[in-house]
Amino acid sequence: MSTPETTRFVRLRVELVLEVEDEKAVTKAALSRLAEESADPDLPEEERAQVEATVTEDTAEALAYLVDPFDLLAEVPGVELHQASWSSEHIEYDPDSPDGDFDDDDVEDDDEQGGIG
Prior knowledge:
Layout: H1 23-37, H2 45-57, H3 59-66, H4 69-73, H5 102-112
């Protein structure tokens, strides 16, 4: 649907639950990416050291460092990413629990925003 009243901007919400099977591998990948980026003279040594400590201490932070929405959309034709935010956290998760259904949250959000629910 393309009318003058329709905005060209789209908010894409993605929520993932990941099972980390090898914390050392995730940390190693994050440290490897950091080492590659450390060759950038614009990355201050203090910032690099802080990121290194953070990804070493917390696997969730290492994942957040590795997942970059700009990279995910780089090859999508016809779109330009204007803003992104993301975070990660350790959670309790039971895949067999009915409480793990993402759709319940989406319906509430859509109703609050006047969308389909």
